[in-house]
Each structure stands twice: as C-alpha cells, then as structure tokens.
C-alpha cells in the first residue's frame, strides 16, 4: 500500500516544487514576517532587553496556531521541507549544480547558458535530480531501469 507521500510526490510534482521553490520560500518568509509583527508593545526595561527566539505573547502564539492551520501555507511548508530534507541525495556534481541554480530561481535557459549546455540536458539533469530526491534509483535497481545506460550516454 502506498503512503500519501508516494502518491503525492511524483517526479512531475517534485519538478514543479523545484521550479517554484524560490517563490514559495519568499512567500512563506513574507507571511511569517507579517505575522511576527503582530504583538503587544512593551515599555520600560522590557523594551530594551533582547528577545529570544521563543514566541512569548499570547497574540503571537494564536497567530502562529492559525498559520499552522492554514492548509495552503502548511502544504507549501511541507513541500519546501520535502525538498530540503532530501536534496542531500543528489550527489552527482552536475545534477547538484543544476538543482542549486533552479532552486535559486534561475530559468532553464539561464542555467543552460551558465553551465554551457543544451536546455535538454538541463531538463534531463533536473529530472534525474528529482528521481534521486524521490528515492530513485533504489540501491537494488536493476538494468531494467536503464539508469546505468543513461549515465553512460550523458557522461561520454
């Protein structure tokens, strides 16, 4: 039986998350910054003391609770974490370069120009990175996956 992640995080979905990663990071940060500004003003000595990273006011805690209940933002955060927790699986240097540039918001055309390669190769490397992020190829992969054949063709 497949889990929700196996059904939801297809290669196509992972490529979409990678494409929009920089926008989603920006949106989550802006949303968080808007929420952080909510609070109770402090006066006197409390106003001059450094603030910890702990959310201390009742209003801020309530706002943070509401954020976590917001499905759209929660899904965006989940997608971001999915990529962040798995990008270490991409160990090939070219794949990692392409992935890094794409996560930074570069277009495929720009990546191809920067790395001096064809756009089709950029797409191929992004797909391979997405497969690695998803967990492909498995350690027990057989030649029926054609992964080894692709590797030979790309690097020769």
Number of structurally distinct domains: 1
Unreliable spans are 137-156
Average pLDDT, rounded to a whole number, is 77
* Portion of residues within helices: 55-70%
Radius of gyration: 21 Å
Largest sheet: none
Oligomer status: single chain
| Overall geometric form | elongated
**Structural class, from helix and strand content?**
mainly alpha
Number of helices: 9
End-to-end Cα distance: 39 Å
Along the chain, the helix and strand elements come as HHHHHHHHH
Please tally the β strands and state the result: 0
Proportion of β residues?
Answer: under 5%
Domain HTH luxR-type: 105-132
Protein name: HTH luxR-type domain-containing protein
Organism: Ornithinibacillus xuwenensis
Detailed description of the structure:
α6 (93-103) packs across α8. The chain is mostly helical and 156 residues long. The chain has helices at residues 4-8, 11-36, 45-48, 58-69, 71-86, 93-103, 108-115, 119-134, 147-155. Helix content is 69%, strand content 0%. The longest helix has 26 residues, at 11-36. The chain has one domain (4-155). It is built from 9 helices and no strands. The chain is elongated.
